[in-house]
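Need residues for this backbone.
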């Protein structure tokens, strides 16, 4: 059961159409990562599109993605192998249809990206593909070395810019989806610092708002990743699924005081090894695939090694790499290491795991539809069933492309009866002002991140999860009754809402499966838990 504080708030701000600026569009896309951009491009073939994003177009998780995009690109690989690897990694919870659809659509969509100007790296005229943990074949395409996400995003952003009927609004903080009593979505209310509150009425809305790595103290994600989309979807009555499954990336640069930065898994795919604080290699003792075991295993092994050696981190060793090749193949990491005076030919790179990817999200069908009419979801914000209980590395950019295209098409074609009917309605919704207790929202957010890291992290146990849920519930009592007028306050409310749901689901899953590891239930329990947990805000 969710606490009353989470259930009670339908909207975070009062809404009055009589005094709020309003825009109208056929298709509203919220979010500008790979899924949102691809959805906007597809929808624009049929209707006018408004694409809004919280920061600038480059402030996305996609932009920061390093390793690459997984697809069957060479003759020694096959759809069957990619499907099998995805299913095995997903530990029994993948949706077979989603996996087949995403894997089979990959090569065509990557070719299309290349036509649109994405410059994937090549060797001898062929795409240069590499290996990551859990993949039985090299199938990770990359662009500009380790700047793959940026390469893909730039190509899509150029395409968006060339498409006259896509109206891009940056620095638009979407606060809430607007729904009516018939469970239909009519658009969203948001806020721009220059113009204040705005309602965007839309015939169809696509949520591509990304994940929530920032719910954790340690994360590879940008500041924007505060799970706003999941919280607003929950408030609107959307079904959320698999909220207990969070992927932790094994190797984030760890320098006390510096912000965390992703160190791509493809480094390990190309021969980097992990050493403990005594400079001893340890991964072979945990898994026969050693450094190339799936991410959950590597993350847990690192954590265990850190505990056993009483250390805050382990090391990545690439001293044996050719230094010049490293610079061209991994320019971002090369620059990052240099900025901290780490000479990779003589020094080890200090790393530790951190929160990386939310596997759970808004439940969709294979058309990208949610349970709310007129609301679609894609990318990290969605739960399509592709990843099951664990995501195979580099499958997410691919999923964003595939389901971005699908949702963009479905939210815009003439078969969609809502097309070109942005639904204006007179609306006045008031929220009583609470005069209870003053609040330091930044203190709540910092404490929440520390709590999530400690109690809902890489390894979990029942008592700690219950404690997390109860503490979050207590914080919600004096945060959820407030009405904020800045994004920071809304983010804090969203973070509490989603963290609560994650702790609740993790507490209920009394087994270990994929990324969800319970020290008190260390085995997989197919009899009890080979199923998804779904959450929906009660409306009565
Ligand atoms: C990485 O480069 O290691 C991250 C890629 C991903 O998360 O798929």
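Answer:
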């Amino acid at each position: 059961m969710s606490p009353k504080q989470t259930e009670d708030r339908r909207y975070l701000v009062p809404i009055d159409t009589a005094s709020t600026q309003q825009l109208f569009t056929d298709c509203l896309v919220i979010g500008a990562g790979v899924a949102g951009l691809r959805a906007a491009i597809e929808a624009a073939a049929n209707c006018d599109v408004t694409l809004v994003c919280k920061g600038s177009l480059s402030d996305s998780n996609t932009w920061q993605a390093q390793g690459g995009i997984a697809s069957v690109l060479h003759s020694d690989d096959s759809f069957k192998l990619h499907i099998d690897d995805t299913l095995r990694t997903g530990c029994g919870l993948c949706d077979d249809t989603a996996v087949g659809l995403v894997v089979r659509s990959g090569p065509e969509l990557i070719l299309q990206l290349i036509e649109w100007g994405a410059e994937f790296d090549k060797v001898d005229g062929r795409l240069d593909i590499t290996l990551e943990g859990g993949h039985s074949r090299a199938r990770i395409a990359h662009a500009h070395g380790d700047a793959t996400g940026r390469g893909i995003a730039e190509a899509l952003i150029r395409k968006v810019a060339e498409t006259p009927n896509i109206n891009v609004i940056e620095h638009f903080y979407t606060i809430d989806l607007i729904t009516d009593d018939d469970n239909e979505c009519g658009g969203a209310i948001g806020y721009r610092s220059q113009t204040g509150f705005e309602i965007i009425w839309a015939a169809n809305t696509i949520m591509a708002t990304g994940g929530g790595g920032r719910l954790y103290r340690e994360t590879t994600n940008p500041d924007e990743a505060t799970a706003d989309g999941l919280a607003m979807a929950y408030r609107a009555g959307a079904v959320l699924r698999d909220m207990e499954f969070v992927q932790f990336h094994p190797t984030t640069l760890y320098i006390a005081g510096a912000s965390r930065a992703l160190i791509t898994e493809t480094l390990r795919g190309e021969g980097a090894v992990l050493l403990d604080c005594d400079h001893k290699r340890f991964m072979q003792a945990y898994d026969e695939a050693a450094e190339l075991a799936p991410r959950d295993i590597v993350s847990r092994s690192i954590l265990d090694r850190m505990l056993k050696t009483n250390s805050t981190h382990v090391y990545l060793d690439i001293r044996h790499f050719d230094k010049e090749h490293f610079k061209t193949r991994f320019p971002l990491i090369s620059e990052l290491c240099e900025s901290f005076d780490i000479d990779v030919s003589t020094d080890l790179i200090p790393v530790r795991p951190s929160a990386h990817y939310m596997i759970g999200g808004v439940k969709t069908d294979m058309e990208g539809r949610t349970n709310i009419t007129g609301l679609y979801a894609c990318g990290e914000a969605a739960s399509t069933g592709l990843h099951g209980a664990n995501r195979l590395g580099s499958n997410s950019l691919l999923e964003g492309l595939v389901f971005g295209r699908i949702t963009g098409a479905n939210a815009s074609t003439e078969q969609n009866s809502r097309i070109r009917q942005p639904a204006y309605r007179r609306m006045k919704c008031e929220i009583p002002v609470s005069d209870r207790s003053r609040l330091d929202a930044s203190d709540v957010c910092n404490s929440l991140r520390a709590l999530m890291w400690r109690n809902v992290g890489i390894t979990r146990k029942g008592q700690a999860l219950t404690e997390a849920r109860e503490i979050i519930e207590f914080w919600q009592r004096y945060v959820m009754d407030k009405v904020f007028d800045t994004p920071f306050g809304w983010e804090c409310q969203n973070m509490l809402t989603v963290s609560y749901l994650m702790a609740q689901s993790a507490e209920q899953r009394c087994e270990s499966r994929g990324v969800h590891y319970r020290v008190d239930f260390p085995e997989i329990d197919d009899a009890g838990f080979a199923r998804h947990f779904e959450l929906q805000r009660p409306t009565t």
